[in-house]
Amino acid sequence: MAVNNHPFSRGICHIRSANPKDKPILDPRYLSHPLDLEVLARQTQYIETIVETKPFASLLKSSGRLPGGKEATSLDGAEEIVKERLFSTFHPTGTCAMMTEEIGGVVDTRLRVYGTKNLRVVDASMFPMETLGNIQATIYVVAERAADLIKEDWKRDV
Predict the structure, then answer these.
(1) Residues in a beta bridge with 90
(2) Structural domain range at position 64
(3) Of 85, 106, 141, which residue sits at a domain end?
(4) Which of the residues are catalytic?
(5) pTM, full prediction
(6) Number of domains in the chain
């Protein structure tokens, strides 16, 4: 299984209506950045190289690794395998990414939602890229920093 820990593809998340019970419009747009597909395809090819070497070759059935007799010998073949077998892992992030508004960001460097004064995002959705390791510890750090930012802004506005 190949894993892309830092995908460049950007999905969308929009509210459907003013009704909070309406489900949001979500489209992860997996593989919308061409580099994501190439990274996963090349990893798939490399995994095939690994499992064809000793001692793996003698332990694994050659017919049991890839579905439908597909082969990852060519980049095109590996890309087809990736497209058929892709799924998300870990904790997807970035639905309210901290980036400039011009490139699709939702929050600024003080975690404020663009176009608002007092609405902040303090969870994993503000990460523009997936973090390495367990995400919970990183969220704790962001929450601590958010508390400092809120106190700073409150003191400045008083």
Answers:
(1) none
(2) 18-85
(3) 85
(4) 91
(5) 0.76
(6) 2
